[in-house]
Write a structure and sequence with these properties.
Structural class: alpha/beta
CATH class: Alpha Beta
Bound molecules: arginine
Number of domains: 1
Number of strands: 15
Strand content: 15-25%
CATH superfamily: L-arginine/glycine Amidinotransferase, Chain A
Largest sheet: 3 strands, mixed
Strand order of the largest sheet: 2-1-15
CATH topology: L-arginine/glycine Amidinotransferase, Chain A
Radius of gyration: 17 Å
Shape: globular
Length: about 270
């Protein structure tokens, strides 16, 4: 496997003007451990600078709504393929207020917006990541498995359902990261046995150790051979370098307090 130069070079981000911790909806979030918001802003700007200036990505910006503290995690906005945008239907009411803002952005960009069937939860790229033309899809913690059929039918793509079994890795993008059209990095402990078999039989794999998986190593933004990822993952960086990638480590401490990091802050805009 080698890093591929061609690929997505556009992303959507949301500057953290109202980022905060106002509720607890995953095991990382504790009301008594709230983020330092000015440090969070610095970390976000460093990620933005890394993506835009160092990696050369085009970054679209969306304004954060005051009543949506987690809206900075644009990966959850939806999933874009061609001119279709599959809009998120969040599991928790606390995040459902973000949906109209993401819808408005998709519509303004001219996408055909589709929503999941009634009662079917879907959290965008948080749980749905393309590996080449195959869609790797997580379920159980946030997105429902019914969203997988809906994505497969709406987009006409092969979808692999992967069950997440550990609350700490509650979104697929916290424990699996597509590196090329046929290779993923992943943390096996986040998946049930069947999902591990599916991953290993469909893709070439790079395993991430638990220590670095807990630092959200897999929550990396892969743009061709350039990868922006949370700092504190030296082993993963070394493996990536051996494969021809250039890792860019960014401190994400204030976003980890909400259970997010580099990839969560970024929606791929193909
Ligand atoms: N606090 C947010 C939540 O629990 C974090 C979302 C992280 N996003 C992601 N794509 N993993 O929903």
């Amino acid at each position: 496997m080698t890093a591929s130069p061609e690929t997505v070079r556009k992303v959507l981000m949301c500057p953290p003007i109202h980022y905060d911790l106002k509720y607890e909806i995953n095991p990382w979030m504790h009301l008594e451990n709230s983020p330092d918001t000015s440090l969070a802003a610095k970390q976000w700007h460093t990620l933005h600078q890394t993506l835009a200036d160092e990696i050369g990505a085009e970054v679209f910006l969306l304004e954060q709504a005051a009543d949506c503290p987690d809206m900075v995690f644009t990966a959850n906005a939806g999933l874009i393929r061609g001119n279709t945008a599959l809009l998120a239907s969040f599991r928790h009411p606390q995040r459902q207020t973000e949906e109209p803002h993401f819808r408005a952005w998709f519509e303004a960009r001219g996408y055909q917006v589709q929503t999941a069937p009634e009662g079917c939860r879907f959290e965008g790229e948080g749980d749905a990541l393309f590996v080449g033309d195959t869609l790797a899809a997580g379920y159980l913690k946030r997105s429902d498995i019914c969203s997988h059929n809906w994505m497969a039918n709406t987009l006409g793509v092969e979808t692999l359902s992967l069950e997440l079994v550990d609350d700490r890795w509650y979104h697929l993008d916290t424990c699996l990261c597509p590196l090329t059209a046929d290779t993923v990095a992943y943390y096996p402990g986040a998946f049930d046995e069947y999902a591990r078999t599916v991953i290993a039989s469909h893709f070439k794999t790079l395993e991430v150790c638990e220590e670095e998986a807990l630092r959200f190593a897999c929550n990396a933004v892969v743009l061709g051979s350039q990868i922006a990822l949370p700092s504190g993952c030296p082993r993963f960086c070394e493996e990536l370098q051996k494969l021809g990638f250039t890792p860019h480590s960014v401190e994400m401490s204030e976003f980890l307090k909400a259970g997010g990091a580099a990839k969560c802050l970024t929606l791929l805009v193909p």
